[in-house]
Amino acid sequence: MTGFAALVARDLRLALRQGSDAALVLIFYLLAVLLFPFGVGPEPNILARIAAGVLWVTALLAALLSLERLFAAEQEDGSLDQLALLPLPLGLVVLAKVLAHWLLAGLPLTLLAPLLAVALGMDPAGYPALVAALALGTPTLSLIGALGAALALGARRAGALLALLVLPLYIPVLIFGVAAVDAALAGFAAGPHLAILGALLLAALPLCPWAAAAALRQAIE
């Protein structure tokens, strides 16, 4: 666990030292959400009705922005080989990078979402479900994204390939994330939808790092 925590701290330090990727994610999320009132009109009822979908889709796309460089920097400077030689299993190395990515991208998006929901006129009754759904869904997005980033590593136009790989896998998370908020807004229990999001996270937690580690071994060889 000491080595795992050291890897997470290393990635956080490197990302915060550069700062541009994390800031880009938040700026994109903010601007993309605030553009919708200009696109669909300032009608409050329409904005409130589509707010959950807007917040989820833009959060998904914002998280995708920073995934292309998840392993690319280590491959370029040769440190990917060193990471593979650590006494930690490569799957745990991937999991550490996923946790760092979520802390830098997923968690800020989750915390920012209620503020943007206010701008879209969402009923406050949906805020708890929105935060809970994003808190469960964004780690799954990072895990799936890590798998896609490992598979696309070294490919030409890796960003486009990454999007094609992961966006179809993001659809279940998107569906149940939006459904949880819509259920809360309609006065129904959001628990079943949140339970499915939790199940998706529990399924992705062991599978995605293991599959991503296998893809990274192929890239190293």
Provide structural commentary:
The protein has one domain (2-220). Helix content is 84%, strand content 0%. It is built from 9 helices and no strands. Helix 2 (20-40) packs parallel to helix 6, helix 6 crosses helix 7 and helix 7 packs antiparallel against helix 8. 42% of the residues are buried.
List the helices and strands and how they pair.
Blueprint: H1 2-18, H2 20-40, H3 44-65, H4 72-77, H5 79-84, H6 90-119, H7 127-152, H8 158-185, H9 191-220
Helix pairs in contact: 1-6, 2-3, 2-6, 3-6, 3-7, 3-8, 6-7, 6-9, 7-8, 7-9, 8-9
Rough outline: elongated
Beta-strand content: under 5%
- Specify the number of helices: 9
For the termini, the CA-CA separation is 27 Å
The secondary-structure class comes to: mainly alpha
Mean pLDDT: 86
Report on the biggest sheet.
none
Relative helix content = over 70%
- Helices and strands, in N-to-C order? HHHHHHHHH
Radius of gyration: 18 Å
Unreliable stretches (pLDDT < 50, length at least 5) are none
Count of distinct strands: 0
Q: How many domains, as an integer?
A: 1
List keywords for this structure.
221 residues, mainly alpha, 0% strand
Summarize the structure.
The chain is mainly α. It is built from nine helices and no strands.
